[in-house]
Amino acid sequence: xxxxxxCCGNVDRAARPRGDxxxxxxxxxxxxxxxxxxxxxxxxxxxxxxxxxxxxxxxxLRMLRKERLGDLAVGYVPVADSPVARLxxxxxxxxxxxxxxxxxxxxxxxDDAGGILLGEGRIEPITGQAYCDDQQxxxxxxxxxxxxxxxxxxPLPESSAHPLSTNLDVSFDGLRVTTTxxxxxxxxxxxxxxxxxxxxxxxxxxxxxxxxxxxxxxxWVWYRHTEDLHLARPAT
Length: 236
Known about the structure:
The protein is globular. Strand 3 (about 45-50), helix 2 (about 55-65) and strand 4 form a beta-alpha-beta unit. It is mostly beta strands. The chain has 4 helices and 18 strands. It starts with a strand and ends with a strand.
């Protein structure tokens, strides 16, 4: 079985391993439906992405849309250190783990604008209110608010591609939010965990996995998807 491997954007193609372990495809940065869907239709076993966090998110979004999260493992070769790499213990240029590493259930976050989040969603600065489940994590101004999948979250006992058919137990949170405020002459950081994060704030731009959202927003929601991503990564 040949791995479907995607080389996204201006990456170092000379670094990738030779041989028949993977069938490599050259794609633009942040590939979309036209580039990814035909390859997913033929893929089996594993998809590897060599690129940035934004490239990975673009491919995983197409996997979600085509309901392939449950039967395809994902390997990721970051081109540089990144939030996804730090979150899941991945190293830039590590083709070996991406191609052969054990896939492990990994929380996947979605938002109410139709996107996903694999590394971090960032709003800075921010003035408004935010709740992580029932806990208020923001009331007023902050230097930054950062949401990410929680590396300490337990895998989902039963995954489903259809959120309306599944109710997550509160013990399966999956989302982490970190708020940084200025207190006198120091910065104060607080972290909370939950399943969903709801925000209302003064109009500003949200950045998801390194990509600014194309339109300013005043409200936003992130929540754990009811199906985990199976990412080749070390055990946490």
